[in-house]
């Protein structure tokens, strides 16, 4: 690894650093939770609808 790059450890849950975590949290609580989908495309459609 080059000398000018330093790796930093992130906490396991850090929505302020990774905004996508907020999206997944919303989908789990409102749309995808306890719902079975037949295919990947069905899951993508449910996410888009949400």
Please give the radius of gyration in angstroms: 16 Å
| H-E order | HH
Taking the alpha carbons of the first and last residues, their distance comes to 41 Å
What coarse outline follows from CA principal-axis ratios?
A: elongated
Helix content: 40-55%
Strand content: under 5%
**Which structural category fits the helices and strands?**
mainly alpha
Q: Segments where pLDDT lies below 50 for 5+ residues?
A: none
Overall average pLDDT: 81
Number of strands: 0
Q: Biggest sheet, in brief?
A: none
Query: What is the number of helices?
Result: 2
Protein name: Transposase
Organism: Nguyenibacter vanlangensis
Domain Tc1-like transposase DDE: 3-33
GO molecular function, one term: nucleic acid binding
Verbal overview:
This is Transposase. GO terms for molecular function: nucleic acid binding. It comes from Nguyenibacter vanlangensis. Residues 3-33 form the Tc1-like transposase DDE domain. The protein has 50 residues and is mainly alpha-helical. It has a domain at 20-49. It is built from two helices and no strands.
């Amino acid at each position: 690894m080059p000398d000018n790059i330093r790796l930093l450890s992130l906490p396991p849950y850090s929505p302020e650093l990774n905004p996508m975590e907020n999206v997944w949290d919303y989908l789990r609580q409102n749309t995808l939770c306890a719902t079975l989908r037949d295919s990947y495309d069905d899951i993508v459609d449910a996410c888009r609808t949400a």
